[in-house]
Amino acid sequence: MEWNRKNVENLILVTMIITFSGQIYLSPLPSVFRLSMAVAALTVTLIHFQKLPVMLVCGTIAFTIPLFRAFVDYMSISSVGFIQLFWIYAPVAIYYFSYGILFEFLQIRKKLQSPMLFMFSLWFVDSFSNLMELSLRQLLNRTEIGDTILQIIVIGMVRTVLTYFLYNTTIYYIERYDRSLKEKKYRETLLFLSRLKSELFFIRKSITDIEEAMKESYSLYRQLEPGVFKEQALSVTKNIHEIKKDYARVVEGIEKTLAGEEDFSLMSIREIFELLKENYISLADSKNLEIRFVFQCRTNIMTSEYYPLVSILNNLIINALEAIEEDGAIVVKSYQDKDYYHFQVMDNGKGFDPKDLELLFLPGYSTKYDEVTGKMSTGIGLSHVKEIVENHFSGIIQVDTLHQKKWTRFWIQIPVKRIWEVAS
């Protein structure tokens, strides 16, 4: 074993787990001989922490378990000395040394793929090691073990089954936890990339706008008579050209970065909904908001355009979330109607002033501000949505109110051919 910090920490952790679990036990004899859960914990940890040498773990446990048991008894039985108590429990060391030798010799770690062989081998190791300890105690104390051998064998079988069950349960929850972390990381990455691609879309649009401004500036330069203003117009044109080149370099850098993230995979609308739902339930909980999320996908299709779709829905759901002060509901629906695929995002938040309807999708329009600094929001979200829907998807976005103006609805219609890949 390599003596690095991680392995040392694992050894300490394993020692503590096994030592404490040794206090859960049965005593088939009226003596200090015990059948404890330390063995189950030992087996599980030896299999899970494969970099830890078997004999190192068993040797450490052979010392710590009698030491800890003596300490516990010493604290409760003051009439018996600590050293005397330690020697009373010391024969348990023969069990763990025998267990380690047989565990290594029979290569128990390699038998996991064959459950019956694994359990039979473990049963033999456990029972033989218990008999070794019991035999040593018989020699030291001159006691008769009688029918205890049969009890040890039966209890060893039960403990082996419990150990196998404990191991599989532990692995299940570890894998489940790892899977949840990976899913969370995947959701965060997808949302991040969707936002980045959305910003990239607008940087490209800005480059086009800058190019138009440069053309107009140069046209103005050519129309002006020689003089100060003509020189200023030329200077402005050159500066605009430099800005355009800087933007182009930024776009190129981002595209190269994103090239490694592209996998050209497909996602279904239902998968997008599940991703968004889990993300926003967590977000609402973190803000102590009582919000009911309803996602309904009536027509499930596969699409490679999931980044811009996630960006659109993400902006609309955030907008709905921020419109709800304490409790409410957000409903997201999707369905296909002939040649169009429809998305609807509805909320029963505070809504908007009807007089502002024509301003909603304009860059800079916002009713949101930072409660601490008082700084207004940039008001870019809805203008982003409109640009992506209309220019990227050739679609339509509308906003209206429902149920006596208690609900706000954003309604998006996108030509099916722009997002459809394979019917699910």
UniProtKB/TrEMBL annotation:
Keywords: Kinase, Membrane, Phosphoprotein, Transferase, Transmembrane, Transmembrane helix, Two-component regulatory system. One of its GO terms (molecular function) is phosphorelay sensor kinase activity. InterPro entries: HATPase_C_sf, HATPase_dom, His_kinase_dom. Pfam families: HATPase_c. The chain crosses the membrane at residues 7-26, 54-72, 84-105, 117-136, 148-174. Residues 191-418 form the Histidine kinase domain. PANTHER family: SENSOR HISTIDINE KINASE DCUS, TWO-COMPONENT HISTIDINE KINASE. This is Two-component system, sensor histidine kinase YcbA. It comes from Tindallia californiensis. The lineage of its organism: Bacteria, Bacillati, Bacillota, Clostridia, Peptostreptococcales.
